[in-house]
Amino acid sequence: MVEKFRNLHWNYYLLLEEDLIQTLRFVQLSKDNFNVFSIEYVKQFQSVCAEIDVLLKYLCKFNCLSSSPKNIKEYAENILGNYPTFTKESVFVMGLEEELSPWEEWQLKNDKEEYKSPKWWSEYNDVCKAWSSFNGR
Questions:
Q1: What whole-number distance in Å separates Cα of residue 86 and Cα of residue 88?
Q2: Scanning 79, 118, 121, 132, which has the fewest C-beta atoms within 10 Å of its C-beta?
Q3: For residue range 61-118, what is the model confidence (pLDDT) as tens digits?
Q4: Burial 100-111 (b: 16+ CB within 10 A, else e)
Q5: Residue 95: left (phi > 0), alpha (psi -120 to 50), or beta?
Q6: In angstroms, rounded to a whole number, what is the distance separating the alpha carbons of residues 23 and 65?
């Protein structure tokens, strides 16, 4: 299982990382540039989020072999139930010199709050919908 992960997902991650690094020749990694738009960034955003989708399904399957979640809400039930500190994980982004916590908004429904997906995930779905309507799908 670890070998499969390394061969498939890690190598793909390295490819995605290299694609992003290539763009840094043209657009510096800076908060001042967060609103920069390019079709390349749309492609990268979709590729990264699609891979996250695959990995979340994989993690759910790892937790429960009979698990077949269909969306991020179902992933949350499995992942946040098994890894309660998942949303507290962060990553330091070199070049930006900042720590980001991409999962901090992800939460299950409870007595006080409704289910909430990460903002970037909702934006990913919006991009997919917009792209599909643009292409007449």
A1: 5
A2: 132
A3: 888 877 789 999 999 999 999 999 999 999 999 889 999 999 999 999 888 889 999 9
A4: eeebeebbbeee
A5: left
A6: 39
Q: At what angle do helices 39-63 and 11-23 cross, to 10 degrees?
A: 160
Give me the residues paired with residue 55 across strands: none
pLDDT tens-digit series, residues 27-39: 999 999 999 999 9
Write out the residue range of the structural domain in which residue 42 sits: 2-132
Q: How many domains does the chain have?
A: 1
Q: Which residues contact 33 (CB under 8 A, 6 or more apart)?
A: 27
Alpha-carbon distance of 69 to 77, in angstroms, equals 9
Measured distance CA(59)–CA(12) in Å, rounded: 17
Burial (Cβ within 10 Å: 0-12, 13-18, ≥19) of residue 15? exposed
In a domain, 55, yes or no: yes
In a domain, 78, yes or no: yes
Residue indicated by tokens 């139930």: 81
